[in-house]
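SUBJECT: A protein chain and its fold
Encoding: whole-number codes for local backbone shapes
RECORD BEGINS BELOW THIS LINE
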Amino acid sequence: MKKYSFILFLIGTQNASAQCESTDFLSSNPTIDNPYLKEHVLTKRTVPYEYVRESDVVWSKRVWRQIDLREKINHPIYYPLDHHTPSGQYVRNTNCWSLWTIMRHHIMNGELKVFSPYNPYQFDIIDGDQFKYPIVPESGGNYCNDSVFRNNVFYYLGKLGDQTDVPYSTYDGQDSTAIINGINQFVYPPRDTTWIDSEHIVKYLIKEDWFFDKERSVMDVRILGIAPVIAKEETSSNGQKMISGLETKFWVYFPHLRYLLTNYYVYNDKNDAQWMSYDDLFWKRRFSSTVYKESNVFDRSIDSYRTGVDALIESADIIESIRTFEQDVWNF
């Protein structure tokens, strides 16, 4: 009997020890979404541009490009998509963000300056790519705590729906009224808010300068501005929505945006362990684009005198002229 009691005691002790070891194993091995623990935090400092003196620039050409997000090579800029749920909740990917998601996030935080694409007081003057009309919050303000900035910048991040003509009703079925500015007025439901999401961006416009630096003897390029473009919708007479053109939402000064893009990474479909930053993507010119305007005496874009295939040929000719100049520099 004593022998059996001793054996049961040993078995109970081993079970208790195994449970303690199991608990210790779980506490010492946290749950991670990788086969290894990422110890290196991907934070980088923005590499500054090479300093260029005005006297060293012997030739320059300003061009405007458009990045069509339907092209496969440009998908890392377009995806992953963010969206708003019917309840208004903003849903974003946890691993990487699209370029629009990055810009929207930092604009609402008051960390990125927005420039209106037109004169806010005279809408027919469209010269926003010259960075004339900034929209900024008060010092330390953002979309949440600065009401003036919120009202001004909302137009560039979303839009309000049509105001219903049916006012609120009281419990007895009567139209609800309230004293507003000393006048008894009907109280209407708030207008629906429609935010611009990544899927609404169809292209990006880029303003850049190509120049030859005689100090370094190189042809170099600097991106000065970038602007998101969406499809412009209008409601027809029968109530159906239709696309009536494209709308440039705003311009962002690219040298400011670079400091934010340095620590945001784009998806690499060939190697998940080697993602490049958005700043690297633009620096290495890992995108496809076409020229839609160059600096010229008429200040006109290509689509004002060329259409279709002829416009693409004209765009290619402008790019080739820049390459030809670079090659001619080295001909003796």
Notes: The longest strand covers residues 218-235. The two ends are 108 Å apart (CA to CA).
